[in-house]
Write a structure and sequence with these properties.
The complex is a heterodimer of chains A (114) and B (111). Chain A is mostly beta strands and 114 residues long. Helix content of chain A is 0%, strand content 54%. Chain B contains no helices and 11 strands. The chains are: A mainly beta (114), B mainly beta (111).
Chain lengths: 114, 111
């Protein structure tokens, strides 16, 4: 199994640009999670999906952030417009159930907004 | 406000030393406490603790939870350079069905 796949691995963009981060969960995993990690705020859960349906998006910082899961094998996290304070590592994780300890994390996307 | 505090924030030790990492928390409707190891990439799960006083052990790593005093410790004995990483503590709450991560302890083990 290839594990959770994220792309791109690194992204550098300018303030105001749209950024799209992508995630392919492990096949058979019904839950998908998006996290953000910064030095200031640590690791934060942004949103999670169950069977492609967003369940809890209360961690999404503001309306500039949106996430979709059009099918069981693909999810996107979009930031529009991006700001320098969005610079962070964004992790996607998937699991068969809601339990925190069963989640498999992807390698992350390191985003730098100039 | 729910929060998770870890100490120390960074630590440098020599190979062979024993280290103790601390995690204290304040959370509504505690469900579990989790420890992760994060090297250069994504966090990897180490332990989940739900009951006080029961030690979880995996090789040179062990952890215990005190639900009365609201803290947990992670012990690493006979440290090796491969233990160098950030160790994250996280707490799950049943009230929000959410997880709150601490800032992490950055451990460096030098030969």
């Amino acid at each position: 199994d290839a594990g959770v796949i994220q792309s791109p691995r690194h992204e550098v963009t300018e303030m105001g640009q749209e950024v799209t981060l992508r995630c392919k969960p492990i096949s058979g995993h019904d839950y998908l999670f998006w996290y953000r990690q910064t030095m200031m705020r640590g690791l934060e859960l942004l949103i999670y999906f169950n069977n492609n349906v967003p369940i809890d998006d209360s961690g999404m910082p503001e309306d500039r952030f949106s996430a979709k899961m059009p099918n069981a094998s693909f999810s996107t996290l979009k930031i529009q417009p991006s700001e320098p304070r969005d610079s962070a590592v964004y992790f996607c994780a998937s699991s068969r159930d809601r339990r925190q300890e069963t989640q498999y994390f992807g390698p992350g996307t390191r985003l730098l907004v100039l | 406000e729910d929060k998770v505090v870890q100490s120390p924030l960074s630590l440098v030790v020599h190979e062979g030393d024993t280290v103790t990492l601390n995690c204290s928390y304040e959370v509504t409707n505690f469900r579990s406490l989790l420890w992760y190891k994060q090297e250069k990439k994504a966090p990897t799960f180490l332990f989940m603790l739900t009951s006080s006083g029961i030690e979880k052990k995996s090789g040179r790593l062990s952890s215990i939870l005190d639900k009365k005093e609201l803290f947990s410790i992670l012990n690493i004995t006979a440290t090796q350079t491969g233990d160098s990483a950030i160790y994250l503590c996280a707490v799950e709450s049943t009230s929000y069905d959410k997880v709150i991560f601490g800032p992490g302890t950055s451990l460096s083990v030098i030969p």
